[in-house]
Amino acid sequence: MQVSGPAWVSSGATDWSQLSATRPLVAGDRLKTGSDGYLLADLGEAGVVGLYGNAEIRANDSGQGPVIDVLKGKVAFHLSPSSKLQLKAEGAGIGSKTAPADGYVEFDEHGVPVVVVEEGSLHVQVAGVDRELTRGERMALKSDAEPMQVAANNDDEENRKKAAAVAAGGAGAAAGGATLAGLSATTWTALGVIVAATGGAIAVANEDKKGTQSQ
Q1: 92 DSSP β-pair partners
Q2: Cα 65 to Cα 108: distance, rounded to the nearest angstrom
Q3: CB 57 within 8 A of CB 69
Q4: Using one digit for the tens of pLDDT, what is the confidence trace for 136-145?
Q5: Band of residue 161 on the pLDDT scale cut at 50, 70, 90
Q6: CB 163 within 8 A of CB 76
Q7: What does R_g of the chain's alpha carbons equal in angstroms?
Q8: Distance, CA of 180 to CA of 103 (rounded, Å)
């Protein structure tokens, strides 16, 4: 895991403790970030999840693959094609189809989780009803919600370009199974999702560590 700023972990009945970047993510973990914290967890071929400030997740295993339950805040993700990684929020399920997908889940001001698709498409199940969301769509994860188009934002587009440059550079350097700053090529690609909204906070934190390896 890559950590910038305050972040904590709790496993089972244990109390919260400061998170070490070298600690692997395991089923039963709960992770949370402080207001200035960011966290990126690489789940290998399944994908990557990233927590923004004041976010919280719980990691589980369905027996078919990892499950990340989004409990609070904003959590970005990169899902590999037909990934076994599933995200959940208030009982709704989110997964990839046959192509990779990038997006995020964020709780709105009413406490309702909303999923946004930034690249690719997602399979979303809410109250037993299956839907497909495509790039540029958002949907509140409640039974009576319908997909909506996300309004364009010039700042978001500028950050997306910055993210693409960071991700492309890191992924290229980490190609062939190597790592750069402790991140795989897949993780560098997913890092673009996080950078797009943070304006580079995590990217700077990781770029400062180039040449080092995380365990």
Answers
A1: 89
A2: 28
A3: yes
A4: 999 999 999 9
A5: very low
A6: no
A7: 16
A8: 23
Residues of the chain with CATH 2.60.120.1440: 2-149
Give me the long-range contacts of 82-87 (CB less than 8 A, separation at least 24): 83/45, 83/46, 83/47, 84/46, 85/43, 85/46, 85/47, 85/49, 86/62, 87/49
CATH match of 2-149 with 2.60.120.1440: yes
Place of tokens 């399979």: 123
Task: Output the six-digit token pair for 162.
Answer: 């910055």
Give the closest residue to 56 by CA, choosing from 69, 42, 45: 69
pTM of the model: 0.74
The two tokens of residue 194 are: 């996080």
More confident residue, 183 or 5: 5
Max CA-CA distance within the chain? Answer: 49
What is the rounded distance in angstroms from the CA atom of residue 116 to the CA atom of residue 19?
28
Give the DSSP H or E segment for 57. strand 56-61
Let me know the angle formed at the C-alpha of 215 by 175 and 119, rounded to the nearest 5 degrees.
Answer: 45
CB distance 191 to 166 below 8 Å: yes
Residue 165 confidence class, pLDDT cut points 50, 70, 90: very low
Contact 43, 27 (CB under 8 A): no
d(CA 167, CA 19): 24
